[in-house]
Amino acid sequence: MSRSYDNAIHYHLRILERDQYDEQAHLGLVGVLKISGRHGEARRRYRFYLDRMDEIAIPPMPFPAGALGH
């Protein structure tokens, strides 16, 4: 199962390489990190997401509570 988490993380990171303001990719990444047990990394990436949304004056979504954050 961790392989599928790694694949999902890689997928979201690739999207964010191309568009650092993709809200769905940020939240998806945070959600996958959270459910894979990488809580510290999930919090760091959520802060990064907050910074990106602040840069473009978009109100951020709350920290994902669900499985994949979608």
Task: Describe the overall structure.
Helix content is 67%, strand content 0%. The chain is mainly α. It has a single domain (2-55), classed as Serine Threonine Protein Phosphatase 5, Tetratricopeptide repeat (Alpha Horseshoe), CATH 1.25.40. The mean pLDDT is 92.
Summarize this structure as a short list of keywords or feature phrases.
single chain, 70 residues, mainly alpha, Serine Threonine Protein Phosphatase 5, Tetratricopeptide repeat, 3 helices
- Shape descriptor reads globular
| Low-confidence runs | none
CATH topology: Serine Threonine Protein Phosphatase 5, Tetratricopeptide repeat
* Number of self-contained structural domains: 1
Strand proportion:
under 5%
Structural class label: mainly alpha
CATH architecture: Alpha Horseshoe
> What does the average pLDDT come to?
92
CATH class, anyone?
Answer: Mainly Alpha
Strand tally is 0
Q: What proportion of the residues is helical, as a percent range?
A: 55-70%
The profile of the biggest β sheet is: none
